[in-house]
Structure formats: C-alpha cells, structure tokens
Amino acid sequence: MPTGTESKTIGLLALAGLTPYQTKDGEEYMNEQQMEHFRLLLKAWRNQLRQEVDRTVTHMKDEAANFPDPVDRAAQEEEFSLELRTRDRERKLIKKIEKTLKRIEEDDFGFCDTCGIEIGIRRLEARPTADLCIDCKTMAEIKEKQMQG
Questions:
Q1: 3-class state of residue 10 by DSSP
Q2: pTM value?
Q3: Which one of 26, 76, 91, 102 has the fewest beta carbons within 10 angstroms of its own beta carbon?
Q4: pLDDT of 47-56, one tens digit each?
C-alpha cells in the first residue's frame, strides 16, 4: 500500500504521462534523460496547479451569492476561505517549482544545497522540489524542533 507521499508521486507521474525513472547500470547521475524526466514532471505539476487556480476563480464567481440567511452566508465564506488558503499554499508551491525548473536549466538540480552530495532519484521522485539530501533535511528538521521547543 503506497504512503501519502508515494501516492502523490504516482499521481504526478501519471499526470505527466511518465513512469518512475529507472536508472541503468553505470548511468551518470543527473544526465540529460534524468533532467528531462524531472523537467516534464515539474511542468505537468505546475500546469495542474495553475488549472486548480483557474477552477477556483471560476467556482467563486459562479457560486458567490448574497444569502439572506447568516448561517448560509457564513458557510459559504468559510468554504471560500479554505479554498483561498489552499490556493495560497499552491501559489507558494508554484514558485518553488519554478525555482526548481530554473535550477534544472542552470544544471544545478539534484544536489544538496548544504553538503553538495546527490539527493537521489527516488527522493526527487517523491519530492521533485527537494534541495536538501535526506540527512541534511533531517538535521534541519531536528534543529527547527529544538528552536521551537
């Protein structure tokens, strides 16, 4: 049974018409085929998010009503508020995707920003916008928890 992250990745790959990248023996890390795979994946994800934004705008225009009943009006406002919060998170994600696409263009994709080692194909399949290897990300999360706690 796939986890939540794995399900999202499978969905992204299917959306882009891709299958998980299968590395070949002796294949160089972040070669042109791998870069193209992630470029297509990220562009498909960005397009899906943009379509959601368009759907939200259309939905809010079509569904906006001035209900005389305060409970109905409050329910609609709450629904719109939740939708707008979701779209705001997606807007931030689109920026992150575009930053990642720029890294691909600059041939700086797939390597940890902190230590410089390979992030890894499987991690990038699960989180295409990852810019830290799993060890550096784990350390960053531990430090963050210590700062909060």
A1: helix
A2: 0.79
A3: 26
A4: 999 998 888 8
DSSP calls for 22-75: ---TTPPTT-HHHHHHHHHHHHHHHHHHHHHHHHHHHHHHHH----SSHHHHHH
Residue appearing with tokens 């329910």:
75
Q: Judge contact between 67 and 76, C-beta under 8 A.
A: yes
pLDDT tens-place string over residues 59-85 = 777 777 777 888 888 888 888 889 889
Residue 1 has what pLDDT? 44
Is it the case that residue 42 has pLDDT exceeding 90?
Answer: yes
Q: What are phi and psi of 18, to 5 degrees?
A: -115, 160
**Domains of the chain from N-terminus onward:** 4-109 (1.20.120.910)
Residue 11 contacts residue 45 (beta carbons within 8 Å): no
Q: Give burial (CB, 10 Å; 0-12/13-18/19+) of 126.
A: middle
